[in-house]
Write a structure and sequence with these properties.
alpha+beta, Porin, 2 domains, 16-stranded antiparallel barrel
């Protein structure tokens, strides 16, 4: 009796998947055996090999965002390249091209429970080690991470550099989340320590709560030792009351070494509190965040609100942001507010062109310091 091609294909696929499951023999060996037994022809076997290879590649692409996997899931390599142009209204500043970020990410899953990541920045004078950590997953509700990684404070600080709506982060995040204008210097929002994370209370295929609790040195990233004997404590809780809505609250309690005014650097209090919310509906996304901090005796606060909408398919996205920051609340003349308009054009899922215009407003004396920025981004 002749077997139909459909029946034979179903039979062979079942046998192949069974063989893969029990690891009795590989695909080629099984197909060669079926050819010898005259169950399938050489042409049918070649077609089945092609179908299996295509399905396996699709599966790998879904598991790996960038579609590149070396060896197995134990070693995945990806990267980020951002080239930026800055045009300044101030005559004292030079318009320039710069290499904003050039990063290489190596990560993987050693087992179902153990994973790791090593993330390096090559832009700048010397390379910097951004992330180097391992995570042990007991269950979705309990994961343990140790090493160097992002401190779980601020929704925008925790957002990947490749996924930002605007070229630069907000003033308040740069000032209070261990970034460019923080008293501890630019630590890329990272530190060395350990944390517990997890998600629980599953409703309609989504978790209602995500939590983070960590203990860190407070000395920043890419350093060899702590700079004081105190350890900083960080906590964050995110609630997802409905689909596509996230509401977060976080705190940071620390004592770190920095200078206040003209005095020499010493150990001072560095505390933070923040709340944030994000809602995504079809092509519209809305985000707002408020953070405040105390450095020694100086209180600082600020917030931003932003909206973005895809006006053309998933290619062209327009965005707007209101961004205000007060670096010293006891001084009533130093608040700065940015009005930012932006556009993002996505060539595909790997390449994006971002254009921003920043209208900067000072609280008292106005300075001609508006900025035009353009950035070409490629991920792999």
């Amino acid at each position: 009796m002749k077997f139909s091609y459909l029946f034979k294909s179903t039979l062979v696929l079942g046998l192949v998947f069974s063989a893969l499951f029990v690891k009795a023999q590989n695909n080629d060996e099984l197909l060669n055996l079926l050819i010898q037994k005259k169950v399938v022809s050489q042409q049918e076997a070649d077609s089945l090999r092609s179908d299996l290879a295509l399905k396996e590649q699709v599966k790998r692409d879904k598991e790996n965002q960038h579609g590149i996997t070396i060896g197995s899931r134990a070693l995945q390599i990806s990267g980020l390249l951002q080239t930026e142009y800055e045009g300044f209204e101030q005559s004292t500043k030079l318009n320039t091209f710069l290499l904003h970020r050039a990063r290489l990410d190596v990560k993987g899953n050693v087992t179902d429970n153990w994973s790791y990541e090593v993330y390096t920045e090559f832009a700048g004078v010397t390379p910097k080690l951004l992330d180097a950590y391992t995570t042990y997953k007991i269950a979705d509700y309990l994961k343990f991470t140790a090493g160097q990684f992002k401190v779980p404070f601020s929704a925008e600080s925790l957002t990947s550099d490749a996924d930002l709506l605007f070229i630069d982060r907000s003033q308040v995040v740069n000032g209070l989340a261990g970034r460019s204008t923080d008293v501890i210097g630019n630590q890329n929002g990272r530190d060395i320590g350990a944390q517990l994370t997890g998600s629980f209370a599953k409703i309609d295929n989504r978790y209602l709560f995500d939590y983070y609790f960590g203990v860190f040195n407070g000395a920043g990233y890419d350093v060899t030792t702590d700079n004081n004997n105190q350890k900083d404590v960080v906590g964050r809780l995110v609630i997802h009351p409905i689909a596509n809505l996230s509401i977060g609250a976080d705190f940071y309690i620390g004592q770190d070494v920095f200078a206040v005014g003209t005095a020499a650097a010493a150990t001072h209090k560095r505390n933070r509190q923040g709340i944030d919310g994000t809602y995504v509906w079809n092509k519209l996304s809305l985000t707002a965040e408020y953070d405040r901090g105390t450095d020694a005796t100086i209180n600082r606060n600020g917030w931003y609100g932003q909206a973005a909408y895809f006006v053309w398919s998933n290619k062209l996205q327009l965005a707007a942001r209101y961004d205000t920051y007060d670096p010293t609340q006891t001084i009533t003349t130093d608040r700065t507010t940015y009005y930012i308009g932006g556009a993002n054009y996505f060539f595909n899922k790997w390449a994006k062109l971002a254009v921003n215009y920043i209208d900067a407003r000072e609280q008292t004396v106005q300075i001609k310091n508006n900025i035009f920025e353009a950035q070409l981004q490629v991920t792999f």
